[in-house]
Amino acid sequence: MNDFQLKFRKRIGISDSEEIRFDNLGKVLKQTAMSIPFENLCILENNLCEITSEGLIEKIITRQEGGVCYELNYILCLFLLENGFDAYLVRGVVFDQVNKKWSATGKTHVAIIIKHKEEEYIVDTGFGGNLPLMPVPLSGTIIKSDNGEFKVEKTSEGYILQMKLSNKDNKWEVGYLFDPSKVIEGLDEIYDIHKVIIQHPESPFNKKPLITRLTTTGRFVLTNTSYTEWSNGDVTKRDIDEITFKEIVKQYIGTQTKNY
Fold first, then answer.
1. Residues designated as active site
2. For a FRET experiment, which of 107, 180, 204, 238 has its CA 20 to 30 Å from that of 88?
3. Nearest Cα residue to 28 out of 52, 11, 42
4. What is the pLDDT of residues 44-84, one digit of tens each?
């Protein structure tokens, strides 16, 4: 077992001796979501890592920071490949729930497709608080997890991940549109996505901090002005100031922050 394998397992709290199989992949996804936050602090601080395998491993595994979709799912895909999975990365376009339209940044979401026993599944640890925490089959079967219900619908435009989040949604909501046949061929394509995310005027990730992570009782979302927590079915939200924001960031990520 190589150094990356050992460090990733330690990062998410899985034993070195545990075999990673399809039937326990849900555990891997949940442990990853509870251990590695979705966050954009490095983008806002212009403290960007190199878009290389070494650079992303350094950021997520060695420095134990979080990241956005192309960082988190790239690292997870490496881990799956090294454990014998047939896995690859694809691009998607996220649905803007607030404005009810597809994101102006285009196909900048990165997710994972795995093939198991001749069936394809979408796997994602980089979709903020909307994580399925289980492989979701492209066949349309509904998957249930601690985070809600998820399914994939095939349409004339492509495949759409739909979700009904626990303690939040009472109807199916659109997550993102993707094409499993459009494989990301290399890190050059990841770098192109990275440039759009940090430069596009309508990118939601280059304006204000956003941190979200799964917890043992639910999940939380942190911005520089508010902290929202879902815990055992209850939702609490409170306004926060700059000092409180920095304290929470240090608690959950262990890093210092600049002013926002």
1. 69, 109, 124
2. 204
3. 11
4. 988 788 899 999 999 999 999 999 999 999 999 999 999 99
